[in-house]
Amino acid sequence: MIGEMSVYCHKNDYKLRNSDYDFKDELKPSALLSLTQESACLSGDELGFGYYDLQPKNYGFIIVNTYCEIDRPVTLGKTLTVETWPLPPRHVIFERGYRVKCEGETVARLASRWCLVDLSDFSLLTPDKLGEVHTKCPYNPEKSVEVPCWKIPKLAERGEAVYSLTVKNSVCDHYFHANNTRYADFFFDCFTMDELRERELLSFQITYGKQAKEGARLGVYRGKEENGVTRLEAYCGEELLSQCAIKFGTRKIRG
């Protein structure tokens, strides 16, 4: 919290619910993203650039990239501690780091990139638009994880969609588009239970390029696995909305 540390870091504990887990009784990627972004919102409130701080100016933060490395699965019945902090912004990019702990052990490390936008037309804004809040913000330069590359290469061949859906109100947020955390569900639904049961998730990355509004028909395409990484893409018609890269490893036996 502000004033309690020489380097800023927001911390919050979350008692996990049964609905946060998948069929393997392991924390779902979408639930992990929801928890870390909840912490990002609380940190924004604490620093003076939260949702309600920006609302009078009709400004908002939109996420454009998320990268996550998993150190070990989180199983049913646990409590997580999420640590997060904003890094110094660069031009129109606001980066944030996260460290997720379970019983004192780091279980996941994440980084996300955001853009500040004018909600009337979603034009990009620079940090100075935050005014004094930006100049006084205790930005923390620590990187929680080294992101290999923020850009995910496009699939050479799209092929047939392995998953499709129509965006409905239940997946939309207060910006009236499909919430970014739900894309994790869309992408991981491209794998069968048998595939997910046999392997252990090591990392995943999602990029967000375009918004999916209510009624949009999405087709999700899965590429061939290359060097342990599977790339996926979500399209609305011919428009690429989002990309994902998922890396699996051999499932470990834990006591």
Report on the structure:
Helix content is 17%, strand content 36%. By secondary structure, the protein is of the alpha+beta class. Strands 1, 2, 3, 4, 5, 6, 7, 8, 9, 10 and 11 form an eleven-stranded antiparallel β-sheet that branches. It is globular. The model is unreliable at 1-5 (pLDDT under 50).
In short:
This protein has 255 residues and is α+β, with helices and mostly antiparallel strands. The protein is built from 5 helices and 11 strands; from the N terminus they run βααβββββαβααββββ. Helices cover 17% and strands 36% of the residues.
Mean pLDDT: 94
The Cα radius of gyration reads: 18 Å
Helical percentage: 10-25%
Strand % is: 35-45%
CA-CA gap between termini: 35 Å
**Silhouette:** globular
Q: Structural class, from helix and strand content?
A: alpha+beta
Counted by DSSP, the helix tally is 5
Order of helices and strands: EHHEEEEEHEHHEEEE
Q: Characterize the main sheet.
A: 11 strands, antiparallel
**Number of E strands:** 11
Low-confidence stretches: 1-5
Which key terms come to mind for this protein?
alpha+beta, single chain, 255 residues, disordered N terminus
